[in-house]
Amino acid sequence: MTSQATHTVTTPAPLEGKVALVTGGSRGIGAATALRLAREGADVAVTFVNGKEAAEDVAGAVRAMGRRAVALRADGADPNEAAGAVRRTAEALGGLDVLVNNAAVGVLGPLESLSLADVDRVLAVNVRGVFLACQAAAAIMPEGGRIVTVGSCMTQRVPGPGGTLYATSKAALTGLTKALARELGGRGITANVVHPGPIDTDMNPADGPFAAGQAAMTALGRFGAAEEVASTVAHLAGASYVTGAEFSVDGGHAA
Ligand SMILES: NC(=O)c1ccc[n+]([C@@H]2O[C@H](COP(=O)([O-])OP(=O)(O)OC[C@H]3O[C@@H](n4cnc5c(N)ncnc54)[C@H](OP(=O)(O)O)[C@@H]3O)[C@@H](O)[C@H]2O)c1
């Protein structure tokens, strides 16, 4: 009879010891991303505006995985709050290694229907707030820092009318990402952008009035799940030699 030793092989969680901030982490893609980053070892801060309870639930789920978590009210439309979320995360969790710029508002409609207030709000949340968060993060991120920004498949292919303002805001993030990659590469900090296709969330429910047409635009013929975007964001949060890149997680919407 041969003796058998029992070997337990434990792989360290790839993001163990890292601190991540996910803006708009109370619901949808942001919530799925926060949970995924925690599963991979990170301590996580999430921001919200109205969804305090949902954000606290996400933070609770992160803590249940043995990680630290904090839910912060921070409106990306407010410049002080957009940058302040970075500072508050660092204060609460001891630094910042991963910034996920996820929060956004989607305002769609015919060009002539979009008011100046619409333009200002969408650009404030989707572009200015992201810029300011990146600026604040870059000031404190150590070598190995990761910036992952959530763009949209509408930067690659606009499937119909009504997307002028939203597509404008999301396209700006590609320019920001590439410029950040160049600016921060010397410090070992990466910046990448992920372009989701139609993903089943409150912003774009898979049973919504325009859902069938969106699903038909994809090669896979279906909506994606928030977790399917989160897995790519998490991969980029751990990837050391990928920067300035765009990733479509869109079921082939751009194919
Ligand atoms: N779903 C899609 O089909 C799709 C497709 C392409 C790209 N995207 C992009 O994916 C990202 C996430 O979208 P989602 O579908 O998960 O959206 P969602 O379900 O509507 O969730 C939006 C999240 O952003 C937060 N938020 C909204 N306005 C904010 C503000 N002014 N400041 C800070 N946080 C704010 C919300 O917080 P509260 O809970 O407090 O309101 C919530 O956590 C966005 O960048 C979106 O443009 C989505």
TrEMBL record:
Q: Which UniProt keywords apply?
A: Oxidoreductase
Which Pfam families does this chain map to? adh_short_C2 (PF13561)
Superkingdom of this protein's organism: Bacteria
Q: Which residues form the Ketoreductase domain?
A: 18-202
Instruction: Kindly give the InterPro entries that the UniProt entry links to this protein.
Output: KR_dom, NAD(P)-bd_dom_sf, SDR_fam
Xref: Gene3D superfamilies: NAD(P)-binding Rossmann-like Domain (3.40.50.720)
SMART domains, sorted: PKS_KR
Which GO-annotated molecular functions does the record name? oxidoreductase activity, acting on the CH-OH group of donors, NAD or NADP as acceptor
Which family does the record assign? Belongs to the short-chain dehydrogenases/reductases (SDR) family.
Listed name of the protein? SDR family oxidoreductase
Recorded source organism is Streptomyces chromofuscus
